[in-house]
Amino acid sequence: MLIAQISDPHVRPAGQLYQGVVDSNRMFGEAIQHLHRLDCRPDLVLLTGDLVDEGKPEEYAAARGLLSALAIPYLVIPGNHDHRDNFRAAFADHAYLPAEGALHYCIDEHPMRIVALDSCVPGHHYGDVGADGLAWLQRTLEANPQKPTLLMLHHPPFFSGIPYMDSYRYMEPEPLAAIVRSFENIEVVLCGHVHRAMLRRWAGTVVCSCPSSTTEIALRLAADAAPASYLGPPACMLHLWDEFHGLISHLSHIGKAEGPYPFF
Ligand SMILES: [Fe+2]
Description:
Elements: E1 2-6, H1 24-37, E2 44-48, H2 57-67, E3 74-77, H3 84-90, E4 105-107, E5 113-116, H4 130-142, E6 149-152, H5 163-166, H6 173-181, E7 186-191, E8 198-202, E9 205-209, E10 216-217, E11 229-230, E12 235-242, E13 246-253
Helix pairs in contact: 1-2
Bound molecules: fe (ii) ion.
């Protein structure tokens, strides 16, 4: 099974630029076409939050318009720039999304079980699933502790080392880690939010964050670093799974690179 992950497109109302600078809608469209041009068509696409920038209905209308070009089934989770109720309304045809409350869900129809956590705290940018989310996760994982499982949530449960991102981090990861650690079938935890590819050993599994299809957060590690972003390079992730080889995650840059040359 090939699972593509696109994150943090920050779609704007049609005709408006992200931060007044970047045509995030065009770039999201290019990310979708990038998936269609791969030599193996992904079986499923995961959109790991910040689908839009300000949570507005007109942004979701633009996002759905762009997603109408996507010829692959996809699953969505919200990010801190999404608005829970507007998000739910925009994806009312996605029957896996719960009708009320946090947008946690589980999809059991694929070779990997996909468990999605809504880590958004309405009105805030930091992440937390709360006591109800933890209880839901415990119940959901207990229902099938054998099947290989992919867990996804917008906020990575780790310190990135980039100080201006860590002020919006997943605030109290230890209760979440305690649950994840007790299930050996969690192959990976996939996140967005940090607009960069990062990898960390965590709670007996691996956490992997996906770059944004729009902007890259600057890699500044100094404690007093000023926040900054770069316009690219945009990228997505491709997660290849089979029972025998396990899960291998690839970074896939969107856009043209020189080549191909006949060497490897
Ligand atoms: Fe984002």
